[in-house]
Amino acid sequence: MIVKVNVKKTIKLWKLLLFLKFPVVHLHPIMKEKIIQKAAEMYLTLGFKSVTMDDIANEMGISKKTIYTHFKNKTELVREATLNVFHEITCGIDHIIEMNMDPIQELYEIKKFAIIHLKNEKSSPQYQLQKYYPKIYLTVRELQFEKMLGCTSSNLNKGIEMGLYRKEINVPFISRLYFMGVINIKDDNFFPVDEFPKLQLMEDFLEYHLRGIITEKGLKKLNKYINN
């Protein structure tokens, strides 16, 4: 009888131990993801330079030690947060493309998604990233180029097939030119925010891009989207 009681107690202790350990194992990646999300939000809003590990910890109501449990330094956190934003935007764009809209509508929907996703961007994070974390910037820039080149080329070819874009346009050239435009209109040195509000700037650039490549058939669709 004594042996049976000890066995039962042992089983109960093991169950308690497993219960206590189980959430710890699964909370580890959850906390890491929360830190990445909060850091990305603060970097976009306040800038990469000004936001410290203390700021993130205070905003989340956790200790700075908890952050360092997941990230050895700020550079590592900046890298993870930046790549996280890139992948979120990429997934959103892929979803829009999968909806199989006409190419002009597709570009307007992608623009709308970008505006919503980056609505809190106030400090030109792209250029702060380039200045203070150049290696991370180059990594993200290469990923952006690869993704945008593929998406834009597909959009152009689809537009040509549908008779919305002129068939003689140089797809590789236009794709690269569009990428350069999207990246560089975010430079406040060239486009000061007080003169060129971000939302209007994106609207004007997209219209400029499309007017250079559309046919008469495409122009009718473009005018519809502009009016709406």
Largest sheet: none
Number of domains: 1
The CATH homologous superfamily is named Tetracycline Repressor, domain 2
Question: What is the CATH topology descriptor?
Answer: Tetracycline Repressor, domain 2
| Percentage of residues in DSSP E strands | under 5%
Number of strands: 0
Unreliable parts: 1-5
CATH architecture: Orthogonal Bundle
Q: Which class in CATH terms?
A: Mainly Alpha
Mean pLDDT: 88
Number of helices: 10
Based on Cα principal axes, name the global outline: elongated
Radius of gyration: 24 Å
* N-to-C order of helices and strands: HHHHHHHHHH
SSE class: mainly alpha
> Helix fraction?
over 70%
Alpha carbon gap, first and last residue = 82 Å
Characterize the structure shown.
There is one protein chain. The chain is an all-alpha fold. It has one domain: Tetracycline Repressor, domain 2, CATH 1.10.357. The protein has 10 helices and no strands. The chain has helices at about 1-45, 55-60, 65-70, 75-100, 105-115, 125-130, 135-160, 170-185, 200-210, 215-225. Helix 7 (about 135-160) packs across helix 8. The longest helix has about 45 residues, at about 1-45. The termini are far apart.
List the keywords.
single chain; mainly alpha; Tetracycline Repressor, domain 2; elongated
Brief summary of the model shown:
77% of the residues lie in helices and 0% in strands.
Question: Which helices and strands, and how do they pair?
Answer:
Blueprint: H1 2-46, H2 53-60, H3 64-70, H4 74-98, H5 103-117, H6 125-132, H7 134-161, H8 171-184, H9 198-211, H10 216-227
Helix pairs in contact: 1-4, 4-5, 4-7, 5-7, 5-9, 6-7, 7-8
